Amino acid sequence: MPGPTVTVIQHDPGPTITVTVAPTTNAQGLATQISDDGVYVIGQDIPGGTWHTSGGSQCYEATLASTDTSNIIDNNNFTGPDTVDLSGAKAFDISGGCTWQSEG
């Protein structure tokens, strides 16, 4: 989905620059990109579906049956790319500084 277009107009002689910005929320206001450590509630903070990260130095993800971080459906410690399907989960717990993008 293309992002909104932002036009920057220079006051000095020069060209007009147009930049396309990728949105970080969807039409419902839910985050479509996350990177801060925490528990994200599906349908309230983020949309469900498939999420992907390119990885990082030390990442962790868990799909949760509730917002209680001990109520783990599945989890993974990793450094490379990872893809998670949030179907059936109530929350998504992340840490380690990886940036996750909704495949939405």
Annotation keywords:
four-stranded antiparallel β-sheet; mainly beta; 104 residues; disordered N terminus
Structure, explained:
The chain has 104 residues and is mostly beta strands. It is 0% helix and 41% strand. The protein has no helices and 10 strands. It has strands spanning 5-8, 17-20, 33-34, 38-41, 50-53, 59-64, 72-78, 82-85, 91-95, 100-102. The chain has a 4-stranded antiparallel β-sheet, with no helix packed on it. A 4-stranded antiparallel β-sheet has the order 4-9-6-7, with no helix packed on it. Strands 1-2 form a two-stranded antiparallel sheet. The protein starts with a strand and ends with a strand. Mean pLDDT is 85; it is low at 1-9.
List the helices and strands and how they pair.
Elements: E1 5-8, E2 17-20, E3 33-34, E4 38-41, E5 50-53, E6 59-64, E7 72-78, E8 82-85, E9 91-95, E10 100-102
Antiparallel strand pairs: 1-2, 3-10, 4-9, 5-8, 5-10, 6-7, 6-9
